[in-house]
Amino acid sequence: MTKSDVSQLKFRPFQSRSDRAESPTGCDEKVRFLRRYDAAVREYSRAVSDLVTTVGSADFGSAIHCANLARAIAQEAHEGLDRHLTEHGC
Ligand SMILES: [Zn+2]
Hints:
This protein has 90 residues and is an all-alpha fold. The protein has one domain (26-88). It contains three helices and no strands. Helix 2 (28-54) packs antiparallel against helix 3 (60-88). The longest helix is centred in the C-terminal third of the chain and has 29 residues, at 60-88. The model is unreliable at 4-21 (pLDDT under 50). The chain binds zinc ion. Residues 27, 29-30, 84, 88, 90 line the site of zinc ion.
């Protein structure tokens, strides 16, 4: 298993036994938003790491595109969480 395979395994936020446990906060929706945000930020971090490894190569262009996309997704996930917290007051 490569290092990349290992990092992929961490990006499955809904599959472990503990993920199915009832939310200690009482709001399952908040937990879902948090997990989505967590996964998106991890993906963004991985994409930024790819910038370092591809700088100076022909792959840098697509790596920067992926990083920008991942940043937008992480931003969107954060906004979704914020919206829920405000609307639900949880
Ligand atoms: Zn809530």
